[in-house]
Amino acid sequence: MRQTAAAASQKPVRSRQTDSAARTNVGERVIAFLRQQHPLKTADNVSADSGVPAGTVQKWLDRGSAPSVVHFARLVSAYGPDFLSTAFATPPAWLDQAVRDERAAVLRAEIAAREAMLARL
């Protein structure tokens, strides 16, 4: 069945609007994550953690641009599964598990450090 020119031209417009809204939502979640990690001097601290230039990070924070795939990968490398899960409105189960595992490892390390402090008393 052939589509009319009007019908064919409407589909990509809807798709672009949906993609644009999705990118905006992801961008907002990424910015919120980065600001939560570094409430002060966000761009400088993210740059130090990820190797992405501070000016580039500042553009993201100002919503002038979004991370490229390479920069997004650097952020994932720097911040792990917790950061990656921000890209999803509803993260997949495997990623939720990875986030929980990472948080559990951090808590275990904190417990071990406190037990070592207690042993020194």
* Main β-sheet description: none
Given as residue ranges, the uncertain stretches (5+ residues, pLDDT < 50) are none
Under CATH at level 1, the class of the largest domain stands as Mainly Alpha
Structural class: mainly alpha
Region (Disordered): 1-24
Protein name: HTH cro/C1-type domain-containing protein
Can you characterise this structure?
The protein is globular, with a radius of gyration of 20 Å. It has helices at residues 5-37, 42-50, 54-61, 69-84, 93-120. It folds into 2 domains: 5-88, 434 Repressor (Amino-terminal Domain); 90-121. The chain contains 5 helices and no strands. It comes from Methylorubrum suomiense.
Question: In short, what is this structure?
Answer:
This protein is mainly alpha-helical and 121 residues long. The chain has helices at residues 5-37, 42-50, 54-61, 69-84, 93-120. It has 5 helices and no strands.
Question: What key phrases describe this protein's structure?
Answer:
mainly alpha; 121 residues; 78% helix; 434 Repressor (Amino-terminal Domain)
Mind sketching the topology for me?
Blueprint lengths: L4 H33 L4 H9 L3 H8 L7 H16 L8 H28 L1
Helix pairs in contact: 2-3, 4-5
